[in-house]
Amino acid sequence: MAATSPQQSVLPSRTFTNGSEDDAVPGEDTSEVTKLFNERLQAWKHAVVYVEDYVTATEKMQHVHGKEYEKVLKTVSNPLKEGHHFDQALGGVAGMFENIRSNTQGISNSHYDTAKQLKGTILPIFERLHTEIKNKQKELSKGAGKGSKMVDKARNTTQKHIELLGQHTAAYDSTGGKMSASEDPYVLQRGVFHRLNKQIQEENNNRQDLIAVQNSFAQFEAHVIAVIQQGWGSFNQVLAAQAEQTKAMYADMTMTTQSIKPDFEWNGFVHRNNAILIDPSAPARSISNISFPNQNHKATQPMIAGSLERKGKLLKKYDTNYYVVTPSKFLHEYKTDDDFAKDPTPEVSLYLPDCIVGAVSGQKFNVKGKDVSKGKVGNTFSMSHEFAFKAHTPNDANQWWEIIRAAAGQTTNELPDSSSPNSPISPTESRQPAPLNTQNLAMEKETFHRTPSSAHPASATPASAVSAPRSGIEGKPGAY
């Protein structure tokens, strides 16, 4: 029979969404591709089972000749399981089984020696192929299937933190910003970014696994067809000694099987499922293109942010850390402004309305208060401590002091220690001052409870020191 030409290979059309603004937690089924490939392996396994049954029945048929040969026909009389996975046109697996049915009907004679060779030589070929397909199913389940579960778990975690951010941004608006440090929308948003980054890593890893599986299936299916062709070739040699008519019929079965192109079924499969399969050329997801509810809410935007030096309690040395004053009136200390390396949890959090702010002297100013970053239990046992800060320049110190003083519960005229403690920067080193973010300073200061500006002479800061916000990174106020 003349075989039709195979369809041209085409790339699948479905891609992971990567527009200008993606959903943080897509609603797609991460196991959809895995399920499709698992079902396809089931189809191939059942196809091989059909061949195994056929050879087994043929071996038994040699003992009962023509009348018992009807049992052989029954093994392939039913439609293929998962038949929609096979191209119904001539030249494919479905056409191969149709050819087997028609030729089997005409076989009427057999020999006992043929039965022995079928059982000892031909049947093991398909049994080994059957085992290979089972192993491929296990590999798919433990590899890509496990990756899909990891993606689902990461997405659930991100969704929970996005919902938590939504709750506390709403609470910020209803309570006027009165909340605990752990509920600060600024802190919660940084936590969302951290978990979203982990989620995207899991999604991209799983995507690469699925692309690798998808690419390997074409080679695997070519191997399956090659083994079937090999088995049928051996099958034809065993039956060559039979009568001429039987030999011709089995030769026709073999010719039909061997005419299947290695990529015939794969191309048809890709063409029929191009809306589900992944396009390997599509770009991976990027956090820069993702938005989520309450992103950049006013409660998440710092009043001022940048690096300060703080004197240690024991060694009395100044260490540089990243500090931020939030609209919720917290002064948070971080090791760095990196949201992705680790969970950005504040090292120290001072609720400024409960703090006392001293006067500013040059680059230095002090804040006395209680660290509330450890939760309710930790806050109960924590003691008030005087935090000695040092800015990079007197102008920076005045900007920090003005914002902190406006939010603080009390101010004093007490000057910081004028002695020169050890600093991690040697006098001979030149250090570029880190820029500060004072965006929206004038607006946010009106919302704080501030003490009279006459509390200390240093409060009369020149307008130019406050109204000129600076940023070290274009488009990100307060980043340095």
Automatic annotation (TrEMBL):
Residue ranges of the TM segments: none
InterPro entries cross-referenced by the UniProt entry: AH/BAR_dom_sf, BAR_4, PH-like_dom_sf, PH_domain, SLM1/RGC1-like_PH, Slm1_PH
Compositionally skewed regions (Polar residues) per UniProt: 1-19
Compositional bias ranges of the Acidic residues kind: 20-30
PROSITE patterns given in the database record: PH_DOMAIN
CDD domains noted in UniProt: PH_Slm1
Keyword list, A-Z: Phosphoprotein
SUPFAM superfamilies xref list: BAR/IMD domain-like, PH domain-like
Gene3D superfamilies according to UniProt: Arfaptin homology (AH) domain/BAR domain, Pleckstrin-homology domain (PH domain)/Phosphotyrosine-binding domain (PTB)
Stretches the record annotates as Disordered: 1-30, 411-480
UniProt key word Phosphoprotein: yes
Pfam families: BAR_4 (PF20400), PH_20 (PF20399)
Protein name (Swiss-Prot/TrEMBL): PH domain-containing protein
Organism (species): Mytilinidion resinicola
Source organism phylogeny: Eukaryota, Fungi, Dikarya, Ascomycota, Pezizomycotina
